[in-house]
Design a protein that fits this description.
By secondary structure, the chain is of the alpha/beta class. Helices cover 27% and strands 23% of the residues.
Length: 332
């Protein structure tokens, strides 16, 4: 696998890519992606990340100072009350300067909340203490089962230890960092585990300022992995059967509201610099994350060029998507 360092000198912008940098979905939340590596192989992974990936050809890591300058600029554009959610197509704790990044973001006036998504396998007392000291507000912890065998199967690695992850969860709950347990419900696989996870969250005191749980719906994705025989629920089935039943049994409100529970509000998008359907010249700068893809630059944005016949130089491209400031194109 090719590893790419994204620095200011690389002349690769930090807006435009799904894989690294910053994603703006038109709210006060900025997704901050410092890297995209992953250490496990979840069989339901939406992006086929991890050591056993069959589609991923490249990994990326952004220089902290470069990333911080972009976060500062975009947070100021968004205004007061910004949440920086540090996530990744993989595992954000693989970024070696993560506590430094959190501390630096904490110093940006417009940022009110810093949250982190993690699978928990790299969380230990030292990392939790470092993140707490840095000013992290919340950890969204992806635990999908309490049963050791099911949890190991859903991690895709034989070394996965649910005891280590639940110990880390308890330590987070006892710290100043808020804890949200975030399982993916996979029908037919972890049905009996969801109530166990709800009770575990209640037992350890998760959710001091934010909800204790954020149960996610399993989805199938074009470049993701899906367990054999699993059928995705409709949103109606997920909310009106599964969520409603767990609410009845637990006495908790489990259907989350972005504004009520997290303070998420609509904010102006960072202006687009390319339009869907536009034909532009793109300068190829790096290999893409999937085979046959290259990352190019046009109008100060990253453009993912699919089925790209070139590995360097310029190429004419038709922009096929600009949703959420993520740009994709096809050669013409």
């Amino acid at each position: 696998m090719t590893h790419i360092q994204i620095t200011e000198e690389s002349q690769i912008p930090l807006l435009g890519s799904l894989y690294f940098g910053i994603i703006d979905r038109g709210t006060n939340i900025l997704q901050v992606r410092p890297s995209c590596g992953c250490n496990i192989n979840c069989p339901f992974c939406s992006v086929d990340a991890g050591p056993k990936s069959t589609t991923r050809a490249t990994s990326y890591e952004v220089e902290m100072e470069y990333l911080l300058s972009a976060v500062d600029e975009i947070a100021r554009f968004k205004g007061e009350g910004v949440e920086c959610h540090i996530d990744s197509p993989g595992e954000p704790l693989m970024y070696h300067r993560l506590p430094e990044l959190v501390a630096a973001i904490r110093g940006i006036d417009c940022v009110s909340t810093i949250s982190l998504q993690t699978n928990g396998t790299l969380l230990d007392a030292a990392k939790i203490a470092a993140l707490e000291s840095a000013g992290l507000d919340r950890i969204n912890l992806s635990i999908h089962a309490m049963d050791p065998a099911i949890a190991r199967t859903l991690s895709g690695v034989d070394w996965f230890d649910i005891g280590q992850v639940t110990d880390a969860a308890r330590a987070v709950a006892e710290s100043r960092i808020d804890l949200l347990i975030a399982p993916v419900y996979i029908p037919g696989i972890n049905d009996a585990e969801i109530l166990k996870l709800i009770r575990f969250a209640q037992e350890i005191g998760a959710g001091k300022r934010f909800p204790p749980l954020g149960i996610q719906k399993f989805e199938r994705y074009r470049y993701g992995r899906s367990p054999k025989g699993v059928k995705a629920q409709s949103w109606w089935q997920f909310f009106n059967r599964s969520i409603k039943e767990w609410e009845k049994e637990s006495g908790l409100v489990l259907r989350l509201d972005a504004e009520r529970d997290f303070g998420t509000v609509r904010r102006q998008f960072v202006p687009l610099t390319l339009a869907k359907g536009e034909k532009v010249t793109v300068e190829i700068r790096a290999p893409g994350w999937i085979h046959g893809e290259m990352l190019g630059v046009a109008n100060n944005r990253v453009v993912s060029v699919y089925n790209c016949p070139k590995t360097a130089g310029q190429i004419r491209v038709k922009i096929i998507s600009t949703k959420h400031n993520i740009y994709t194109g096809m050669p013409i």
